[in-house]
Input
Amino acid sequence: MYLTPKEERMHDGEYGWAYQVSMRILTRLGDLFGATKLIPIQSTHISGVSYKTIGDASIDFLDAIASAGGKVKVPSTLNPSCLDQDHLSQMKIPQDYREKQLHIIDLYRRMRINLTFTCTPYYLREPRPGGHLAWAESSAVAYANSVLGAWTNREGSPSALASALIGKTPNYGVHQVENREASILVKVWGNLRNEAEFGALGICAGKLLKDKIPFFEGLSNCTSEDLKQLGAGLASSGMASIFYYHKPYEKRGLETISIEAKDIENIIESLSTASEAPDLIFIGCPHCSLNEIKSVAQYLDGKKVREDTKLWICTSRHVKKKAKKYVGIIEGAGGYVLCDTCAIVTWIKELGIGNMMTNSAKAAYYAPTLNQVNATLAPLSKCVDMVCRR
Ligand code: F3S
Output
């Protein structure tokens, strides 16, 4: 891969170890995928924040980068952590885990990363269409490429952090126009009725397509939140980082598959592993938009959350601040609006949760393995019905 003279000097260690190791990560990746150069990026979004998901080994790496003086060169945001410091009584996190999480946060702070702790950074600031990014968090990558028209590969935490320090990313994958074309036509039969079905479509397609780029035909009247669920599901069960849903495509010659209402029903059934009533209703995977919080508040208005069931609505601090009125209604009904975390990247089994109900196919997909908790996938209206006192 071609490096400019300055990049060569970084690679050789002239700018210090943090930049040298970052440059080495990027060149190794570029060489592996056939990139010929590095290109400037607008922003990075970094995953690998929750102590629950990254463990001790990654702390040493982050510590080394921060101690070597590594600082980000472009606006950089962070994925959720394992705690909401305003709701510690709602969570059961041992003191030493809490201290480790705070240490991780402090390391990112020293690198001058914006402590956003959200998987929907696009609600804070939308990337420009056509702008190159280096984002980790697969659901945000799918949304940025497919709904917002930005250009980002699906980065891992080390490569997103390396790109943050260098301000560039290797030019391969969906950074190149020829790699952004749809490669398969997915005919969706039957109207999808809610966000849970959009997420289930994503899980279904992800399993079938792996890394092929789909053009979904037959999606009508979908909201941006439906598309967020579709992308999150697609990226959970497959490797796609981009999908199309409305652009007229030259369909001739494209491999074609069909997904029918029955396939979506089967996916919902297979993701619904719980046989008992839920102890936790979790809304906000990926983190809620203002509209989604408004919908929860409208459904909950005048009702009360059952005493034997928890209601967690997860979002960013940015959105929560804008949703004050709705947050008041949700909290008045007995629910919690949590920030900086989610039910998947924190410990919930330790809270006595055995069964979770959620409107997110992604959360239902991961809960049994990452949290050892059974799931039920259902739309928001059903989730709220279930959590309210009868
Ligand atoms: Fe976000 Fe947690 Fe889901 S990080 S995408 S809410 S698993």
Summary: The radius of gyration is 21 Å.
